[in-house]
Amino acid sequence: MKVRTRNLNRISQGDVYKEVEFLEYIVEKEGNIEISKIVFPLVIVLTQDCDLAQDFKFRFGRPRPTTQDKLLLSVLVAPLYNVEHLYLGEHLSQLDIQMSTINKGRTPGENLRKNETPRYHYIEFPDDVQVVPSVIDFKHYFSVNVQYLKRIKDTHFVCTVSPLYREDISQRFASFLSRIGLP
Amino acid sequence: MPQDKYFYEEYEETQKTSSSEEQKKPEVSTSRSPSTDHERGPVVSQEYRLEEHLYGVSKPKRIVIRARTIHNESQNEELKQNLSG
Description:
The structure holds 2 protein chains of 2 kinds.
Chain A: E1 3-4, E2 15-29, E3 32-45, H1 49-60, E4 74-82, H2 83-88, H3 107-113, E5 120-123, E6 134-137, E7 142-145, H4 146-156, E8 157-161, H5 163-177
Antiparallel strand pairs in A: 1-8, 2-3, 2-8, 3-4, 4-6, 4-7, 5-6
Chain B: E1 8-15, H1 19-23, H2 34-40, H3 46-49, E2 61-69, H4 73-84
Antiparallel strand pairs in B: 1-2
């Protein structure tokens, strides 16, 4: 898979970021506040690139547009899991979630690596990008606040998946979301 | 009228990890498969792959922050003065 390691000004579809926080909940009761968040080691941006481009233009462009019509509230991302953790069903063990195992050497593992399992997208990064072979789990997508992601962008950016490959990911994600479970 | 604000008197950050998790040794290989490396050309050494900065080796973790909100006494006095004045 081809990637770009140059960090652009704006958030792009296919961007991979490290250590991204997902806010689970905030509870306030009688003066006590509890905040729970999950820190994902790696996520990939799934939001359409044209939407991200328009958001950036409306947010920072000059002259300022007269409306905020194209502003996004959040950016859609999906986590990347270490494929070796995934085989063992241990990738969410620190969240006390036990996942199914996937037999690495048999058909399920082969199907995963050939991207024939709708839920998952297997990625091997080039050698100049220091990321282990990983799997996107489309079922675990979540949204991240645009301003938060913009704020951490420079320090948390890892790489961007090149357009052809990101479109493949996007198309498979859309297909997974719109699947119909027949009886 | 001034708004009440939260002041964090206590700050606690905890990370939930199960004891069994802590006892386990790293069971994950961070190297690429030999066939893949062969296809890519030069094989990157295992030592390089095991460097700490390699992304994607760690797992998602939960962080819980607990804080207590308190009323700022000086702000209370200011509020009273504003209301009486």
